[in-house]
Amino acid sequence: MIKKIVLILFLSTLAYHGYAQSIDLAGAIVDDVSDEVQQKEASYETQRADENVADDRGIFSFLNFSFIKKPLSIFSSSDKIEEKGDNQAINQDSDSSAPKKETQLERATRLAENGDENMALTLGYMYLYGQDGVEADYQKAFHFYELAAQKNNIIALNNLGSLYFSGIGTDVDYQKAADLFLKAAQNGSDDAAVNLGFIYLSSGKSQYFKPAIDLFEQAAGADNNTANFMLGYAYHKGFVVQQDQRKAVELIKKAAKAQFDEGQLVLADMYAKGEGIAKNYGNAVGLYRAAGAQGNVEAMMHLADILTEGRMFPQNLMQAHISYNVASVYGSQEAAQKRDALEGALKIEDLLEAQSAAEKYKEKPSELTIYIRQTFGKNIRRYIDGNLQKQRGTHAD
């Protein structure tokens, strides 16, 4: 019990700061589970009290429910369930002796309890989010997802596993979560494959690395862009798989086209260096700009360096100053130093214009970037980079 509490506290700290390299989370979930489990599927989030769900951020954050697919609504837009407003029967006769008709909520609940998995899935989602007029109720959400999971609905299996893993609407139970995630993944859940892949990488244990890459490959086969990036980055770095820059470009380009900021950043680097693709500085600069617009500090720095040097692309000191200035706001001391060093090279009017432009900057991350940041944290490359560093350190010994 003490070990589990320490693990949970450690994960909570990790979630806030966005680090993820020494977590023995895979072991906590799937000890003594078969090789099939290791290669197929299992778990997701960090534990937290129900009332704190909406405020969490970071690695495996339960704030982001993008992976909890919203079921197709069985109610028309004019027929939203309204828990408070439906105390009166729909189309009830003015005669008080007439039998009351069911409200839509009552009907939905009856159908779900009697085995309608789609209705149970819909109610689970509604109570989880507090949608369509019902108040959020995690216990009820858990109950309805459990009903749908009993019908082997893969969305419900995945969501119920997440609730068990996070202790939302129920007690934390990693083994039940693992069983549910496994079942969902075996039936084709690419989200579950990605989740488990990150968890395996987070363990820092080499025996989990190949299963992690296998899971990313499985999810990439379903065109999951998080998996496309991670598998592409593995090929880029030669992590577990043999290094193949052309495959890396092919996969990472998909994530970049889907507007994932790290995909744009890494693809820009590959264009700049001619790795797996012909050198194209214009494309590199365009991708750095796109990633920087999403708040990616590394992209801002690369862009500013290029614009300062004027070798790969026409020099533009004012734009470089803007990029350094914005990066400094995000906490980069190097950016602040380089910004200050540029000030003497700018005319006063250009400097004032650059400072004004930097003040107006507002990051605009894409949906995919927001999802990945909130779920797995910023800079998901570190899951591979950190483990590569550990492997090299081990070999050095």
Your description of this structure?
The chain is mainly alpha-helical and 397 residues long. It has a domain at 2-91 and 100-194: Tetratricopeptide repeat domain (Serine Threonine Protein Phosphatase 5, Tetratricopeptide repeat). Helix content is 61%, strand content 0%. The protein is built from 20 helices and no strands. The protein has helices spanning 2-17, 25-30, 35-40, 104-113, 117-129, 138-149, 154-166, 174-186, 190-203, 209-221, 225-237, 245-257, 261-273, 281-293, 297-309, 317-329, 333-342, 348-360, 367-376, 382-396. The longest helix has 16 residues, at 2-17. It is globular and about 85 Å long. The two termini are 35 Å apart. Mean pLDDT is 79; it is low at 1-67 and 83-94.
